[in-house]
Design brief:
By secondary structure, the chain is mostly beta strands. It has helices at residues 2-14, 105-109, and strands at 23-28, 30-31, 37-43, 51-55, 61-62, 67-70, 73-80, 86-93, 95-96, 112-114, 121-125, 131-135, 141-146, 150-152, 159-167, 170-178. A four-stranded antiparallel beta sheet has the order 5-4-7-8, with no helix packed on it. The protein has a four-stranded antiparallel beta sheet with strand order 13-12-15-16, with no helix packed on it.
């Protein structure tokens, strides 16, 4: 009986319950007329394992944590943890109008970002003159520069970052994992 009571007390008072404020989403908006939006969730509390239940436009459903190939629209996720903590988050994937051409495939072949994942430093290899902007999950700019091809994220929180690379030929955004 003592062990059962200890477990119940642990579950009620010690375990980090999952609340809506504990679920964050990083969104990559969809390009105009494309199904290429993305949602990357980060959970800051709760106890694994987690279950995910997504609903979205046109009858969309998923049980994956992170989503890709999304149309613009409102997506709602309900997350449940091991101790039945439940959080719900509504996320909007917006449609980005086409303002310039995408980087051509030939240019993509000459562009690389490594190492990915990284522990701090990473390199952007491209023959182009580029402007680089690195965003965190909150959309804040972490690093920005022109022709900056060696970037240091040492001291930043572990997680997913978006690296936006702009040139006169267009813009591309890549995910970067910082360990």
């Amino acid at each position: 009986m003592k062990n059962i009571l200890s477990y119940i007390l642990f579950g009620l008072f010690v375990s980090p319950n999952l609340f809506a404020a504990d679920v964050e989403a990083m969104v990559v908006n969809a390009d105009e007329d494309e199904a290429n939006g993305q949602i990357d969730l980060t959970l800051n509390a709760g106890v694994a394992p987690f279950t995910f239940s997504w609903v979205g436009p046109d009858g969309f459903t998923s049980t994956d944590e992170d989503l890709s190939d999304l149309l613009p629209g409102i997506y709602t996720v309900t997350v449940q943890d091991k101790f039945c903590g439940i959080a719900t988050l509504e996320v909007e994937v917006e449609e980005e109008p086409k303002t310039h051409a995408n980087i051509e495939e030939a240019v993509l072949d000459d562009l690389s970002l490594y190492p990915n994942p990284t522990t701090g430093f990473f390199v952007i290899q491209t023959p182009l003159d580029v402007e680089v902007v690195v965003y965190n999950v909150f959309g804040s700019i972490i690093v920005q520069g022109y022709n900056k091809k060696q970037i240091d994220l040492t001291g930043q929180s572990s997680g997913i970052y978006l690296v936006q690379i702009k040139s006169d030929q267009g813009t591309i955004t890549r995910k970067l994992a910082l360990q």
